[in-house]
């Protein structure tokens, strides 16, 4: 197999570091294992962030997500761990990671974790008529 799962995240220089802009990434095929039963859990992971000096490189992100396929992880822990890993990799101004987990036993779980740089002030929203 030419590609292997890896938790090593790569980055590249933000091409517009002088501007606040949002990068949104949707990963609809995330899988991990239930740490209690060993059965697969499926989720869509949504990442939204305002980069500072670096952006997350997408192929390394795909390999990172793949690394969870055989790992037992509670929804709350895996979502917060992802946020910690992504922040450590690219040090964004703002980042939100949302894990929307598929139904299990009649229950849907959504976990949202956020990071804000201490010196970042978000721009004021613009309302158009």
UniProtKB/TrEMBL annotation:
<keyword id="KW-0521">NADP</keyword>
<dbReference type="Pfam" id="PF14489">
    <property type="entry name" value="QueF"/>
</dbReference>
<feature type="binding site">
    <location>
        <begin position="75"/>
        <end position="76"/>
    </location>
    <ligand>
        <name>substrate</name>
    </ligand>
</feature>
<dbReference type="InterPro" id="IPR043133">
    <property type="entry name" value="GTP-CH-I_C/QueF"/>
</dbReference>
<comment type="function">
    <text>Catalyzes the NADPH-dependent reduction of 7-cyano-7-deazaguanine (preQ0) to 7-aminomethyl-7-deazaguanine (preQ1).</text>
</comment>
<keyword id="KW-0671">Queuosine biosynthesis</keyword>
<keyword id="KW-0963">Cytoplasm</keyword>
<dbReference type="InterPro" id="IPR029500">
    <property type="entry name" value="QueF"/>
</dbReference>
<feature type="active site" description="Proton donor">
    <location>
        <position position="41"/>
    </location>
</feature>
<comment type="pathway">
    <text>tRNA modification; tRNA-queuosine biosynthesis.</text>
</comment>
<dbReference type="InterPro" id="IPR016856">
    <property type="entry name" value="QueF_type1"/>
</dbReference>
<dbReference type="GO" id="GO:0005737">
    <property type="term" value="C:cytoplasm"/>
</dbReference>
<protein>
    <recommendedName>
        <fullName>NADPH-dependent 7-cyano-7-deazaguanine reductase</fullName>
        <ecNumber>1.7.1.13</ecNumber>
    </recommendedName>
</protein>
<feature type="binding site">
    <location>
        <begin position="56"/>
        <end position="58"/>
    </location>
    <ligand>
        <name>substrate</name>
    </ligand>
</feature>
<dbReference type="InterPro" id="IPR050084">
    <property type="entry name" value="NADPH_dep_7-cyano-7-deazaG_red"/>
</dbReference>
<dbReference type="GO" id="GO:0033739">
    <property type="term" value="F:preQ1 synthase activity"/>
</dbReference>
<keyword id="KW-0560">Oxidoreductase</keyword>
<comment type="similarity">
    <text>Belongs to the GTP cyclohydrolase I family. QueF type 1 subfamily.</text>
</comment>
<dbReference type="GO" id="GO:0008616">
    <property type="term" value="P:tRNA queuosine(34) biosynthetic process"/>
</dbReference>
<feature type="active site" description="Thioimide intermediate">
    <location>
        <position position="34"/>
    </location>
</feature>
């Amino acid at each position: 197999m030419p590609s292997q799962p890896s938790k090593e995240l790569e980055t590249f220089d933000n091409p517009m570091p002088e501007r606040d802009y949002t990068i949104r990434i949707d990963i609809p095929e995330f899988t991990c294992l239930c740490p209690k039963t060993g059965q697969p859990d499926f989720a869509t992971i949504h990442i939204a962030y305002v980069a500072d000096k670096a952006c997350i490189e997408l192929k390394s992100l795909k390999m990172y997500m793949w690394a969870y396929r055989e790992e037992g992880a509670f929804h709350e822990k895996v979502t917060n761990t992802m946020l910690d890993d992504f922040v450590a990799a690219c040090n964004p101004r703002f980042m939100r990671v949302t894990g929307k987990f598929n139904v299990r036993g009649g229950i849907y779980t959504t976990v949202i974790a956020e990071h804000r740089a201490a010196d970042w002030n978000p721009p004021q929203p613009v309302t158009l008529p």
